[in-house]
Structure formats: structure tokens, C-alpha cells
Design a protein that fits this description.
Largest sheet: 5 strands, parallel
Strand order of the largest sheet: 2-1-3-4-5
CATH superfamily of the largest domain: Response regulator
Structural class: alpha/beta
Radius of gyration: 24 Å
Number of helices: 8
Protein name: Heavy metal response regulator transcription factor
Number of domains: 2
Shape: elongated
Order of helices and strands: EHEHEHEHEHEEEEHHHEE
Keywords: DNA-binding, Phosphoprotein, Transcription, Transcription regulation, Two-component regulatory system
Strand content: 15-25%
Pfam families: Response_reg (PF00072), Trans_reg_C (PF00486)
Length: 221
């Protein structure tokens, strides 16, 4: 999980970064509001730890701008300890508010709670051997060569790779890709698999898409 810290006090930021790294998180730090807002809006983080008194853009203004297009969990971490400040932080869209000085054990507990509540981000890249899938851009490459797929072919490949090594029945594939109940008299799944194989496997020594007789299909590298 990736955490962004926006904190202008260098020693505090370094302490937080080191402690959270040791707790298993990937941590990035920004020391001012302008750069911090840019990073926060990149969509690459699971949680933001935000100070209020920042150069460039203060934490209140940053929170307002961020909430215009992001639901990322935000933990205010600040020396401003009045009830009015706490209420303001939460009303602006903050998910939690912790006052300095703080206990790291309490901070870590709050971080873990917020990350449990956060929705899981879809995996952006999938790989299987020399096959690479950019999920967001819907691009596929094999051994560095671009593979052009239709929307349904991409959905089918995406499904198989998400469950790589597992056998998926024709009915499972039909319900997930075509949102339909599988009719044994319909060979739509077999035809789609055949077309996908022609694009993904033909011309390559290692065949990824496998037929499991009487059960369905799976993909393995």
C-alpha cells in the first residue's frame, strides 16, 4: 500500500517515512502544498497524511481541491488542536484527525483502519511470462509486440490472466465476459478462445491458453 505524506517539517516527515516503511508501507513525502497536491491528484496513493500549515497551499485549501475529484482517505496530522480545527478538517472531507505530538502506535492503528475501509484499486498491470496487459489503457503486448484485441477479446484475456493457473468453465467465462447464461448449444466461448489464441499464441513457441478437456480453459506461462 502506498502512502503520501505532506509535511513541511523535515525531521517529522523523515521520522514518519522511516517508521511507516518499517511497518511495510511504500511512502512518498512532499514538503509543500503545491507539489503535494500534484502528487495527491496523480491517483497513485492509497492514503494521504496531511499537515495543515504548509507553504504554497495550506492543508485546508489542499483538502478542498483534492475532494473535487478524489475519494482517497485523508488523515490530518497537525498541531492545530482546537475543536473548531478538528471539525473543519472533517467537514472538508478528512477521514480522521490526529493532533501532534502523537504516539506512533496510535497513528499506525489509524492508518490501518483507514486503509481497511478504502476500496481496493484495480490492478493496473498484469503480466504472465512475456505477456503484458495495461488494464487502464487496455493495451496488450507479447514479447514486446503489440497485440490488437477487440473489447470482448480483451475482456476474455483479462479474465483468464486474473485467474491464471485456474480452470474456468465455459459457463463462468460466458457469465463474466458476455453477461449471459451459457447454452451448451452455443459455441460463442470456443470461437472467442480460438480467435484469442490466434492473436496471443500463434507465432510463439510457448502457448499460454490451454484447453482442459471436459472442464474449460486456463492460461499459464
Amino acid at each position: 500500500m502506498k502512502i503520501l505524506i505532506i509535511e513541511d517539517e523535515a525531521k517529522s516527515a523523515l521520522y514518519l517515512q522511516k517508521s511507516l516503511n518499517e511497518s511495510g508501507y511504500q511512502v512518498s513525502v512532499s514538503h509543500n502544498g503545491i507539489d503535494g497536491l500534484f502528487l495527491a491528484q496523480s491517483g497513485d496513493f492509497d492514503l494521504l497524511i496531511l499537515d495543515v500549515m504548509l507553504p504554497g497551499i495550506d492543508g485546508w485549501s489542499l483538502m478542498e481541491r483534492l475532494r473535487a475529484n478524489s475519494a482517497m482517505p485523508v488523515l490530518f496530522l497537525t498541531a492545530r488542536d482546537s475543536v473548531e480545527d478538528r471539525v473543519k478538517g472533517l467537514e472538508l472531507g478528512g477521514d480522521d484527525y490526529l493532533v501532534k505530538p502523537f504516539s506512533y502506535a496510535e497513528l499506525l492503528a489509524r492508518v490501518r483502519t483507514l486503509l481497511r475501509r478504502a476500496p481496493l484499486r484495480p490492478q493496473e498491470f498484469l503480466t504472465l511470462g512475456d505477456l503484458q496487459i495495461d488494464v487502464l489503457k487496455r493495451r496488450v503486448q507479447r514479447a514486446g509486440q503489440r497485440v490488437e484485441l477487440t473489447n470482448k477479446e480483451f475482456a476474455l484475456l483479462h479474465l483468464l490472466v486474473q485467474h491464471q493457473g485456474q480452470v474456468l468453465s465455459r459457463s463462468q467465462i460466458a457469465s463474466q465476459v458476455w453477461d449471459m447464461n451459457f447454452d451448451s448449444d452455443t459455441n460463442v466461448v470456443d470461437v472467442a478462445i480460438r480467435r484469442l489464441r490466434a492473436k496471443v499464441d500463434d507465432g510463439f513457441e510457448c502457448k499460454l491458453i490451454q484447453t482442459v478437456r471436459g472442464m474449460g480453459y486456463r492460461i499459464e506461462g
